[in-house]
Amino acid sequence: MAHEPMLSPEDVDRIHRWHEEADRGSRDESPRTFSYLGHTLVVPPQVMPISGTSALLGEAVLEEVREDDRVLDMGTGSGVNAILAASRSRDVLAVDINPHALAAARDNAERNGVGDRVTVLHSDVFSAVKGRFDLIVFDPPFRWFAPRDLFEAAITDEDYRAMKAFFRDARAHLTPRGRLLVFFGTSGDLPFLKRLAAEAGFTSEVLGRQELTRDGWRVEYFTFRMS
Question: Is the full-model pTM beyond 0.70?
Answer without folding.
Answer: yes
